[in-house]
Amino acid sequence: MALSAMRETVTQFKKGLILRAAAKLFFERGYTATTIDAITEELSTSRRAIYDHFAGKAEILSEICEQSVRFSLDLAECVAREPGDPAQRLRRLARDFAMIVIENQDYITISTREKQFLPPESRKRILRMQEKFDRILRGILLDGVEREQFAIADPAITALAIGGMIIWVHSWYRAGGRLSPAEIAESMADAALRMALAAPS
Hints:
Blueprint: H1 2-29, H2 36-43, H3 47-51, H4 57-81, H5 86-103, H6 105-114, H7 120-146, H8 155-167, H9 169-172, H10 181-195
Helix pairs in contact: 1-2, 1-4, 1-6, 4-5, 4-6, 4-7, 5-7, 5-8, 5-10, 7-8, 8-10
């Protein structure tokens, strides 16, 4: 059992190295301009080391794109299980979602820019994950409406607007800018609450 767990840990570590190297190149050069040979050069390894873990470049792209959504969905599911009023949960989801976007800017940029190259099944999985995130956010907004904390005519549209506002941070965030990541995340949380028309506490 211990040996099997150790092997799995090593495998995941090696896959992580490949994904990070590929993401760096996809982010800088684009998916189509990046070859498997370029990834092996970035890692100073062999093609065999890549193919031991991935069937090819498309599978690497799929894993990067799915991870970019999984981070956010895991957060949303965690927030949905937490106690607290809708305004508190909306603030936490918006703030932490913005931090995820900033901390994973390369993965999210790749997912947004290169999704047309995803295999169909991967595209469907990612779409289902995105839809689940939207449903959770919509549920928080509906809860706020029912408790008369939020005044929203269309929670579904508002959920998409809030999610779109925050995910778009990947396109303009630059390290060392005027605001720190934490300040940007708090600003996104404030904006999300204003969009929900939260009543003063």
